[in-house]
Write a structure and sequence with these properties.
By secondary structure, the protein is an alpha/beta fold. Helices cover about 45% and strands about 10% of the residues.
Length: about 550
């Protein structure tokens, strides 16, 4: 009987310690003989796992290895990520997760999280109760309709919520047992996937219209019933659904959309850091977006909020934030064709379909790319920015890397090394003017895990825009003078946990100030956050 129990423990990733089980535990749990006799430390296990990961032939193979490790020994998985965030976070999330999602049906080994197909309509609450944990505080959910810049990947999009929640724990210390990744399978319009015999999702076209929204309503209601107080993070929903879903549920329960609001926080933080570097105010900037989807308008709205805090009226701030999409500049004469969330940014200007000329007409100090069009920041665009500005701000935020509006090398070359650069995808270090610069990456990992830790610790009942602006300002403030002098607009990922703790404390303070906390306000908020932060260390196994 005891040997069966031990075997079960070794195959439970939340309790398995592998070779770190003590001799006493091995005897008590019936594990003797099921492991090599040596008792190893977690540090030694991390060294072995790192060597095994390094030996993999490609980043996709490393992703598969890390997924298997997470499904085998959860503490070791997170200890490895925390040991070297700069190395492992790009492997469990962007950019590697894009390749993993495209190949999801082919590399699938074991289900993580929950798949809720539309064929279970009417039974979603019952199905949620199949999850073994009764206390879930965070759900990251996708319908797979707009995975990164890759489009409709259907059920293959499960890699996104799995990866996001891994970063909740690794980057900020949200306890993983309170998290649940979910893929809503409402079909796919991707013909290649529908024809792929290894595609694991429903072989049907996507739900649309009222059928779609009623299924989402059943899902949200089921979460409220089964996991009351749980926060829902909507992730990688297409432009037709992302904003309507956020508007429908933001005042009903604790929820947010990271593509809109998290991206806004990290984008605003990058611009605030650039202002620090230039010793200018946010209100002095003129920001031009290439891409006017939910991500672009989300960043734009938060920048406007920051400019208003700097003393401008909302109308004055919106005059300094322009958006440009495939139809050209968002102008008043396009109102009939614009989506509701785009209309507030339509300017009273003549039409323009020339992005480079719009830069000059506007006098842009910053360009932000959220178009998913690789190479859209042409040499002409970059040179125009360099001619207008001593330190042009260039942010090609689209990912994965192939969709980036320009590379770091292209931006620095076209601006004579003078640009303030940050991208959504990672780029290697390069020599600029006789010094080595590591291009900054404006990854949402700087915002959503820290926000999640604050929401978890305070048991917040709602998420507001003010929280994302607080998070963005806190992130920019975490840059040291030395890091700014080195050209960084975001802190090195090597100290992501320290940075996340500082951001979480400031967001928690805002949550208490707004009266949205389910916990009593502590005297020491930083200590309050630290006490609730998950650390990947082995505990006693009962």
């Amino acid at each position: 009987m005891s040997s069966n129990r031990g075997f079960e423990v070794l195959h439970d990733p939340t309790r398995n310690k592998g070779t770190a089980f003590s001799l006493e535990e091995r005897d008590r749990l019936g594990i003797e003989g099921l492991l090599p006799p040596v008792v190893e430390t977690l540090d030694l296990q991390v060294q072995r796992a790192a060597a095994q990961c390094d030996a993999c032939a490609s980043d996709l193979a490393r992703y598969i290895f890390l997924s298997q490790l997470q499904d085998t020994d959860e503490v070791l998985f997170y200890a490895l990520l925390v040991a070297d965030p700069n190395k492992y976070m790009p492997l469990v999330y962007t950019p590697t997760v894009g390749d993993a999602c495209e190949e999801f049906g082919h590399i699938f080994r074991h289900a993580m999280g929950m798949f809720l197909p539309s064929t279970l309509r009417g039974r979603l609450a019952e199905t949620l109760r199949n999850w073994p944990e009764a206390d879930i505080r965070f759900i990251v959910v996708t319908d797979g309709s707009r995975i990164l810049g890759l489009g409709d990947l259907g059920a293959n999009g499960m890699g996104i919520p799995v990866g996001k929640l891994a970063l909740y724990a690794a980057a900020a210390g949200v306890p993983p047992q309170y998290t649940l990744p979910i893929a809503l399978d409402v079909g796919t319009n991707n013909e290649a996937l529908l024809a792929d015999p290894l595609y694991p999702g429903l072989k049907q076209k996507r739900l649309t219209g009222d059928d779609y929204f009623s299924f989402l309503e059943e899902f949200v209601s089921a979460v409220e019933e089964v996991y009351p107080g749980c926060c829902i993070q909507f992730e990688d929903f297409n432009i037709q659904h992302a904003v309507p879903l956020l508007e429908t549920y933001r005042d009903r329960l604790c929820c947010f959309n990271d593509d809109i609001q998290g991206t806004a926080g990290v984008g605003t933080a990058g611009l605030l850091a650039a202002c620090r570097m230039k010793q200018e105010k946010m209100a002095e900037q003129k920001v031009l977006f290439l891409g006017a989807g939910s991500a672009g308008t989300g960043i734009a709205e938060l920048i406007v909020m920051a400019m208003v805090e700097d003393g401008l009226t909302e109308a004055e701030a919106k005059e300094r934030v322009w958006l440009f999409d495939k139809g050209g500049l968002l102008t008043k004469d396009r109102l009939d064709s614009l989506l509701d969330f785009q209309k507030p940014f339509a300017v009273d200007r003549p039409p323009s379909s020339d992005f480079e000329q719009t830069i000059r007409d506007f006098g842009a100090t910053a360009i932000i790319g959220v178009s998913t069009v690789g190479g859209a920041f042409t040499e002409g665009v970059l040179r125009s920015m360099a001619e207008l500005n001593e330190q042009p701000i260039i942010f090609p935020y689209s990912n994965p890397t192939s969709h980036s509006e320009c590379t770091a090398a292209e931006a620095y070359a076209a601006t004579d090394g003078r640009c303030l650069f940050a991208s959504g995808s990672p780029f290697p270090p390069l020599e600029v003017g006789g010094r080595t610069i590591e291009p900054s990456q404006g990854n949402n990992v700087y915002i959503f895990p820290a926000l999640g830790l604050a929401l978890y610790a305070t048991r917040a009942t709602r998420v507001t825009e003010e929280m994302f602006l607080v998070a963005g300002r806190a992130l920019a403030d975490q840059l040291t003078d030395e890091e700014l002098a080195g050209g960084l607009l975001y802190t090195p990922r090597g100290r992501i946990r320290q940075v996340s703790a500082a951001i979480a404390a400031q967001v928690a303070e805002k949550i208490f100030d707004l009266g949205l906390a389910g916990e009593e306000r502590p005297d020491d908020i930083e200590a309050f956050i630290a006490e609730r932060t998950y650390q990947p260390v082995y505990g006693e196994v009962a």
